[in-house]
Amino acid sequence: MPAWFSIKWAIIAVVGLCAALGVIGGVRKAKRAWKNSLLGMITEGVKDEIRQGKVGPEDLSMRSVVQAQPRSVSDLSLSLVPRITKDYPDLNLSQMQSAAQAVLVKSFELLTSMTTLTNGDTIDRIERELCNCGIGVTRSLAQDLDSQIGSARSTGKTLIYRDVIVHKGGINDYKKTASTVEITFQYSLQYLQYQERNGKFISGNRATPTQVRYNVKVINILDASRLAMEDTKGIGFNCPHCGAPVKHLGTDVCELCGTAIKTVDMRVWLVDKLLEI
Questions:
Q1: Do 249 and 221 meet the contact criterion of CB atoms below 8 Å apart?
Q2: Is the pLDDT of residue 18 over 50?
Q3: What predicted TM-score, i.e. pTM, was given to this entire model?
Q4: Are 68 and 208 in contact (CB under 8 A)?
Q5: In the 8-state DSSP scheme, what is residue 90?
Q6: Between β-strands 269-276 and 136-137, what pairing exists: parallel, antiparallel or unpaired?
Q7: Which of 174, 169, 248, 183 is nearest to 219 (CA)?
Q8: Which of 87, 129, 137 shows the shortest CA–CA distance to 263?
Q9: What is the pLDDT of residues 52-95, one digit of tens each?
């Protein structure tokens, strides 16, 4: 065999090897780029959840791989804050917004923890834990959550809300009538939401966060007729001096003893509704 022929094939072999190494290097580089991309990180996260048994095939679909974008919020704070502060100059709106958000998140925690139980106190516990968020709640809100818990318990379901993240929030509405004042906060958030029965998955999605938007309505009851419609245990506002019930929360003094009453107080602003929109 001529020497030039051997050299030719040697050169071809070297070029082929370099090409092969280049392809392998390119593949490895592409794999690294994929893992570092948003879609790659989501996919790897899903794989980890599968390995840990947190998700199964029933949770996976084409849309499960792609993270949905957070919902937008209709924030009208720019126009509403001046109106609210004019009517209630001592009101800390930032504090109220944070407290209303805490009530919303705590409600999801209670729906999860309390549907794991087959019985036990509900309404009183709901009120107690929600009021620890820095603002009061109406009895009707506690009853609404209690109804959801009771309905799930009656069918043996556990309502799971986990990995709750609030993206943004703002003031969405402000209404003032003869009987009540209402401030509505709107929040954009996400969570993993699904249902189990006897520890087994039955519905929902454990892999892809659900993007939602909620309105949280905070009210101040000004009229005795509205106050009478509510459970006094849920309202619970009395004169700090003599303990007499305050019939009109918009009054400045107690009708019985004349003690000055500061009505612009977080005790009389109560979270009344949590509405997914």
A1: yes
A2: yes
A3: 0.67
A4: yes
A5: T
A6: parallel
A7: 183
A8: 87
A9: 555 565 565 544 445 578 999 999 999 999 999 999 998 999 99
